[in-house]
Structures are given as C-alpha cells and as structure tokens.
Sequence to fold (341 residues):
Amino acid sequence: MSQPKLELAHTLISEEEALRLLEGHRISLGNRTMDPKAQVVGEFVKSIRVPGVYPPLPELRQQLRTMVALMDEPAPALARAEDIRIPGPAGEIPARVYAASVGETLPAVVFFHGGGWVQGDLETHHGLCARLALHGDALVVAIDYRLAPEHKFPAGVEDAFAAYRWLRAHGRELGADTTRVAVAGDSAGGNLSAVVSQLAASAGLPVPTCQVLIYPALDASLDTESHRELADAHVIPRERIVWYMAQYLGADADTVDPRVSPLRAKRLAGQPPTMIVTAGFDPLRDEGHAYAEALRRAGVDVVYREFPGQIHAFVSLTKAIPQGLTCTLEVAEYLRKRLSA
Fold:
C-alpha cells in the first residue's frame, strides 16, 4: 500500500481518539464547532495538498476514488446492481441501476454524483447509491455524465437532462414506476439535480416527484458569507472551487445562466418538493440555505437540514465520519416517504 493510503487509514479513528488528538485545537466558527471526526479528515486532506497545484486528471480522479474507497463504509449487498447505457446527446451515457429486490416495480431516483464536474464516477458514489436504494425502497439510477474539462458546460447538463427524460419515458424497461421519479445529487450533482428540475418545468415536462440536493453548488458568483469566512475551508477551499469552475465553464460562459447558477432562476414556482442538506463548515452552505428560502417563497415544500459540525463531502465518507451515514438515512427516509405518497 502506498504512503498516501497508509495516511488515509489514520483518519479511521474513534471519536474519543479524535477528541484526544485535537485537544486544545478544535475548530469553531460562531456557534458551530467542527465534528472531531470531520476535523481529522479535513486536516489530513489539507496536509497532502499544495494550494494551486493540481495533478494530471487521471491522478486527480483516482485520488477521489482512493479516498472514498478507504473512508466510506462498504456498499450493502443488493439483489441488483447492474451497469446499463442510456441514449444521450453525444452518445451513450454509462449508468448503474440499484435495487434491493428483483421483479418489483419501484419508484426511481436519478442520481447525479459530485466532484466539481471534474471528478467522480459510478465507483465514487457506489456505496451512497446502494444505501439510498436499500433504505429508500427505490430503484436508484446513477448517471455517469460527461466531465470537464474534456467536456465543458453544458455537456454535463445535457447528459443529466437527457437521462432524466429517458427514465421518464423508458424507466418501465428497468422496473421503474415512471409516475414516481425523483432526482438527487451531491455538490456538483446537486447543481445538476436542481437544473434538471428547472429545465423540466420550463420545457413543460413532468417535474421530478421530489428532489434532494446534498451540499449543492447553486451560485457561481461565490458571493456569500460562508464563501468569505470559509475561503480556506477543508476539502473545497475557495481556490479549488474557482479551479473547478474554470474547468467546467468556457471562457464566455454566463455565470448567471440558471443552468450554471440555479439560484439565479427568475421563476421557482412549480418546482418539486425539496430536501436540501448543508454542512456548517462548507463554503456552499449559504447558497443551499438561500435556495431553500427562495423555494419556500415560491410556495415549494422544503425540508432544510444543516449538519452544523460537518465539512463538504461527509456523506461519502461514512466510515471516517459516522454522521455521513446519519445523513444518508435521513435522505433515504425523505425519498421513501415522498415517493410512496
């Protein structure tokens, strides 16, 4: 095992050990104190990065796979975990279908992974999607949309919307109840989920039955209090967010385009019931809260859930950060109830 993998394993300590390690060095912000397990993970991530330096894309993408493989609980065994391909605007889109049973028609969740539109794939979110299928009593379809910088905006949006439309039209072929289809995603995937819901409404198509946005990126202006006070944040400091945006967007991209910044949409009435999850020590926190408030003002039913001591990506690191599993189970229960209504 390489040295980075050995060091990653050191983050898998008990909460008591983490508290002893951090004695006198706990991080607080206002009335929030960082979860000790999250702080250990976050400080490890900081320790292996050089600000402004990014490895070649294959290595960068492998880093996320390695971190999740070591820090996330193993995926539960399911009756079904099947790779498929969905027709897309630039060729077939790889996807993976998860279900806890076979031969039963289930409501569907179209899941878009995070990773700054640059990283992430079916493997990095395998455990999360399997847990949502098991505990949410749903057929989860994870979408491996095209990544930047090879495929800049709006390629990812086009793939995400095409996948949603295909599931609505052809989901019965997979065992999905096409009258009950949710969208969900984390970070960049939360952005794509919100964008898909808005595009469906503007195109006069059925909007998702509900949507779950997990620490979503919703406003490319990066002009919120959480962005300012957490410029040196764990996992996604400001310089990294700016870099991700530069990879994703072309030089002439309009950052107030709702397909980039769904918080900037002028009309939100008719959006689906929504659950938004944020983390207290995440620069994206305030835009998630702002979107929850904007949806409420538009008459949308919203569940807003902040984990005040958490950092970005904690839902994908459940072995190292147990609150990630707590959050996953809450999300699964929300989906289960909304999709069974």
User: Anything to note?
Assistant: DSSP finds eleven helices and ten strands in the chain. The mean pLDDT is 96.
